[in-house]
UniProtKB/TrEMBL annotation:
Residues 2-51 form the F-box domain. SUPFAM superfamilies: F-box domain (SSF81383). Gene3D superfamilies: Ribonuclease Inhibitor (3.80.10.10). This is F-box domain-containing protein. It comes from Massariosphaeria phaeospora. CDD domains: F-box_SF (cd09917). Coiled coil: none annotated. It comes from the Eukaryota.
Amino acid sequence: MASHLERLPLELLDLITSYLPALEYCHLRLVSKQLHTNSLRAFIKRYFATIRTTLCWPSICHLAELSTIECYAKEIKLLDVRIHNWSDRKTMTIARRRGPEKVGCSDANKFNGSYQDLVEESQAPEDVDAVETLAQALKGFPNLHAIRIYTHAQYLGLLRCAKRSHYSTECFMLLLDALVESKTKLQELSMLDGKDMTSSTYSSMGKYQAFCLPSPRLPIMHETFVNLRSLSLCIDTTNVSITNAVWENGICKFIYAATSLESLSLELDGYRIESPHSSSIISSMAAEGRLARLQRFELASSMVDGPSLQRFLQQHLRTLRCLALVSVNADDSTWPTTLAFIRDTLEIEQLYITTIHFFRPEIRIDSAGRVESPLIKEVLTSAIDQYKKDLKLLGP
């Protein structure tokens, strides 16, 4: 005979079980076949809408297996891909070369997993089979609309970041190839662990070469990004080869392949704010034209010249409603004019400005953070006045 709990309407059962921690929820589902069946829909929706994974071989195989189970695969909407940081990679390399027993306790504690996990995850996928397997997995997720690729540790110095960005680049290119092959039409692609630049500290940075695609591949990217509404990129533009002409145009073409973008977030030279290369990307974007639906633009940890940013904003005058400038390095003295343009011309509803470093390093502009429409003009006027005051005090 069915118990009272088994006879409850599914909506009421789902409401009750929503208050249970994961372990207790699983125990409840094992009480009887009837409860297991009744709670299956809510269980899948609760724990399979977001899948957290890595891009090691075991994880890719698990994704491929999951994609064959229809009741689970159709509920997956977000793929959360974690990239190991430099410390993880070092620990896993030790495990692979010397054996798990040679990994010290201090190293092992940096990676939350067993020694077997260290050995397995140190085998980075680098061949065509990995792309095909991942593409086959993505095909099996019909409702997948977002992929977020990020690291789980903050920047730990220039050398470590350089090593991590190389591995992040490999993973990003693998993911990009799989997206193209699977013909998955995403709505969101992000290299951040967070909703926006102002809250994320765990970005996954890719080297600039990964975004400079050959011309024959650009039409394919247009097709892949046809439904893309939100794009967040963290691009490592350090060590740009001077022989690599117009490299910034390649990055620009990659971004503009997503013609339906409503939100664009860029972090350029995230750990080397003095690099002059990132300003070329904004200049190229200003010359490329406009994204017809762009409503939100975020720029972080980048060097930008005022006129280029002003031209880019001018092209998006009709649609832009939110602007964020986070730790931007201004490479000329025209930024007060740019700030005045933002204040007097743009009809934005939300503004976030923090720490604009000017061409004189002693001068900084710090706003109070995120401000809404009624206070934007007041904040920008105060910032411009403070800049002029500081410049006057410093003298020629």
